[in-house]
Specification:
mainly alpha, 81% helix, single chain, Tetracycline Repressor, domain 2
């Protein structure tokens, strides 16, 4: 087997393990996630798993860094960074989150938020990795709002840093309420209020 094929197979195996672990953690939480179920869903052996991830802890951190963070970067951060009209883009992102997640995803909760609630009080490494995503998210929204101020879209008196923190907090709060209620309708109501808040920051 050539080196190129070996590298490709290595990457495929790693990606399969990460995708399965992500789904398992999303459904059950990190602490209740079953290594046996992850292996069963992939058809891989324990040896294959531990070759890539020596511990469950390492696997959990990799899910954060290689699945959750890139997904948010694609769906939220990059769109805000690349947009010529980031405030409008932010509103579009908020409006589209319901269809992107789907009813099942909404009732399972936001993967980032689930892990924050479960693991941040328990494990400093998890908290550090999760907080890094939060800070990137807050900064992306802050930059969008500051861009809006410079272009006379956002009111001059708006504290963009505080507003960005509130938007992220409200976004995750929408998921928490909907997950607890098991109600996509509740999520829709919360998101509508979040849209209204962002619109209230805009000049008439």
């Amino acid at each position: 087997m050539s080196t190129e094929i070996k590298i490709k197979q290595y990457d495929i195996t790693r990606e399969k393990l990460l995708a399965s672990a992500f789904c398992e953690i999303h459904r059950k939480g990190y602490q209740s996630a079953s290594i046996a179920d992850i292996l069963e869903s992939t058809g891989l052996t324990k040896g294959a798993l531990y070759h890539h991830f020596p511990t469950k802890h390492a696997l959990g951190l990799a899910v954060i860094d290689e699945i959750i963070a890139p997904k948010l970067d694609t769906v939220v951060f990059r769109q805000l960074r690349d947009s010529a009209h980031p405030v409008a883009t932010l509103l579009d992102i908020i409006a589209g989150v319901e269809s992107f997640m789907g009813d099942e995803g909404i009732m399972l909760g936001c993967p980032l938020n689930n892990l924050m609630q479960e693991m941040s009080p328990l494990d400093e490494q998890f908290r550090h990795h999760l907080n890094g995503i939060l800070e990137t998210w807050q900064q992306a929204i802050r930059s969008a709002l500051e861009h809006g101020q410079k272009n006379a879209v956002i009111k001059a008196e708006v504290d963009c840093q505080a507003a960005a923190l509130f938007v992220v907090s409200a976004w995750e709060g929408c998921f928490s309420i909907a997950k607890n209620k098991q109600s996509p309708a509740s999520f829709k109501m919360c998101v509508a209020q979040l849209q209204g808040y962002v619109q209230s920051l805009m000049k008439a």
